[in-house]
Description:
Number of helices: 8
Distance between the termini: 28 Å
Strand content: 5-15%
Strand order of the largest sheet: 2-1-3-4
Largest sheet: 4 strands, mixed
CATH topology of the largest domain: Glutathione S-transferase Yfyf (Class Pi), Chain A, domain 2
CATH class of the largest domain: Mainly Alpha
Structural class: alpha+beta
Order of helices and strands: EHEHEEHHHHHH
Shape: globular
Amino acid sequence: MTITITAFDRSPxxxxxxxxDTRVRWALExxxxxxxxxxxxxPALKEQAHLALHPFGQIxxxxxADLALFETGSIVFHIAERYFxxxxxxxxxxxxxxxxxxxALNTVEPPIxxxxxxxxxEGDKPWTKDRIPLVADRIRDRLKQLxxxxxxxxxxxxAFSAGDLMMVSVLLRLRPSGILNECPSLAAYVARGEARxxxxxxxxxxxxVNTR
Length: 212
C-alpha cells in the first residue's frame, strides 16, 4: 500500500527543512520507501477530516493501508521498525538507538522550542528580554552534555540510526540562533547528517513545495 504523509502547502520556514514533515521524509528516504504527500493549508488543519488523523491539528501525519499515525517520533519509530536501515540488528544497540530518539525529543528539543517561542510568539512580551538569555543558557548546557558524549565520533552510537536522524533534525532548529556554531563538534555532526543523500532528497522535496 502507498504511504501518504501530510505537509504544509506553504511551510512557515519557507522550505528550509525545519518543518517536521522533513523528519518523516528523511526517514522514508533512508529506508528506500516511496511515499506521496498530501499538502494541507493552515485552515484545513482545523477541519474535521484532518483532526481525525491528528487530534491536535498539526502536521505531519502518516497513512498506510488502515494505519494512521501522528507525531514525528512515533512515525519515525514505526518506519525504523518496519523497514531496514534505521535501527541496528543487535538488540542492545537497537535499544540505545531508540533511547537517543527519545533523548532528542524529550531532553534536547524542549528548550530549543522554548527559545523559538520566546523569540517568535512572545517577542513583544515584557519578560522576553530577560527570558531569552536564560533559555539560551539551558540549551548551551544540553549541548555541552551532548558534545561530551559524542566526543569525536561520527554518530551517537556506532552506525547512523534513527537516533541520529532525530537528533540532527532537532539541532537544525538551532541554526538561526547561532548557538549551534558555538559547539563545533555538534555543528560538524549536523553537517554530516545534512550531507547524507537521503536527507538531501528529503530537503529538496520539501523545498520544491515551497518554491513552486
